[in-house]
Design goal:
Strand order of the largest sheet: 8-7-6-9-10-11-12
Structural class: alpha/beta
Distance between the termini: 28 Å
Radius of gyration: 21 Å
Largest sheet: 7 strands, parallel
Oligomer: single chain
Strand content: 15-25%
Bound molecules: NADPH dihydro-nicotinamide-adenine-dinucleotide phosphate, oxalic acid
């Protein structure tokens, strides 16, 4: 029984960590697959297309990412159980990222940075956190953790998901019919949705126009978008057009339609955009190693697998 690491980056790091935990394990690193019949588990992140489909005894795929959209795009991906990465280290990092960027925009840091560059000493009105409406798109593992990180500040939290949810301190709603009301009551939109056929290109100009622009939080100059889900959720050109038209005040984007973000993209230089390199919540190699071995052993003992992906839903 062998474990194959099929990852486009950090494969040697994962191998090092797994070997440290289980030196006796038959561990292979793609492209050195060896006898393909030996492999029952694959740890995967952007594996070479088609590779996993050539493993005749593969029984489990462990995704290095929490999001599995890229894996599911491979039509040759074997129909074996696929588990995604869910881990307190990753969850904590994402909660930090969302809290950091909500605070950044609530406290009008975009404008303070501009004022600093111009050496202008100027006060700007800032609403209290209790007046700012933060809408979380996606109330899964990461959306709930983000809510937990934001709650102590007193923000008015709401959340939108596919199916009904109950999250302490969050006004929850679900499904397409609830989306308009959710957006209309959102000043800062934080997106933690998976990329699926239903969610692709959702963050477009039409959606931005449905965000709140007035009311108790009119002290904020306009709506803000934070996207740490997937780049395919957003239409980069629409975000830029909405920013230029003043329909969107600012954005923090960790993910992009094309990654790395091409040098020619105006998102790099737009004064109201914060760009981060898809690092909102990186998977920690030691945690990945523990997780992959835990899932592999559960499989071998015939135990239930945690965090199974529902392929029909796409997440
Ligand atoms: P989960 O599967 O736990 O949660 C996904 C949430 O999205 C659920 O609440 C789900 O609804 C909701 N959802 C899915 N489809 C729809 C839809 N059509 N309409 C409304 N809501 C929908 O995922 P995680 O929270 O663990 O991760 C979310 C995403 O974050 C990942 O898929 C990945 O793309 C991204 N990510 C990004 C990282 C980064 O560094 N930028 C790092 C890690 C993850 P329901 O609860 O009803 O199922
Ligand atoms: C993930 C990611 O899905 O890092 O875990 O994007």
């Amino acid at each position: 029984m062998a474990l194959l690491i099929a990852c486009s980056s950090r494969a040697e790091q994962f191998a090092h960590e797994i070997h440290a935990l289980d030196p006796g394990l038959d561990l292979r690193v793609a492209p050195d697959v060896g006898r393909s019949e030996d492999i029952d588990t694959a740890l995967a992140w952007q594996p070479p297309p088609g590779l996993l489909g050539t493993l005749p005894r593969l029984k489990l795929i462990v995704s290095v990412g929490a999001g599995v959209d890229a894996l599911l795009q491979d039509a040759t991906l074997p129909e074996v159980p696929l588990v995604r990465f869910v881990d307190p280290d990753l969850t904590g990092r994402m909660a930090e990222y969302i809290a950091l960027h909500v605070l950044y925009h609530h406290r009008r840091m975009t404008e303070f940075r501009e004022l600093q560059a111009a050496k202008v000493w100027k006060y700007l009105p800032e609403p209290a956190a209790r007046e700012v409406r933060v809408g979380l798109m996606g109330l899964g593992v990461l959306g709930k953790a983000a809510a937990g990180a934001l709650r102590p500040f007193g923000y008015r939290l709401s959340g939108w998901s596919r199916t009904p949810k109950a999250v302490a301190g969050v006004a929850c709603c679900s499904g397409p019919s609830a989306l308009d009301a959710f957006l209309a009551a959102t000043d800062i939109l934080a997106v933690l949705l998976p990329l699926t056929p239903e969610t692709r290109a959702m963050l477009n100009r039409g959606l931005v126009r449905r965000l709140a622009r007035s009311g108790r939080s009119a002290l904020l100059p306009g709506p803000v978008l934070i996207n740490a889900g997937r780049g395919g959720l957003q239409v980069d050109a629409d975000i830029l057009a909405a920013l230029d038209a003043g329909e969107l005040h600012a954005a923090s984007l960790d993910v992009f339609q094309t990654e790395p973000l091409p040098a020619a993209s105006r998102l790099w230089t737009h004064p109201r955009v914060v760009v981060t390199p898809h690092n909102a919540a990186e998977s920690n190699p030691a945690a990945i190693a523990r997780y992959a071995l835990h899932q592999m052993r559960a499989l071998q003992r015939g135990e239930a697998l945690a965090n199974l992906v529902d392929r029909s839903r796409g997440y």
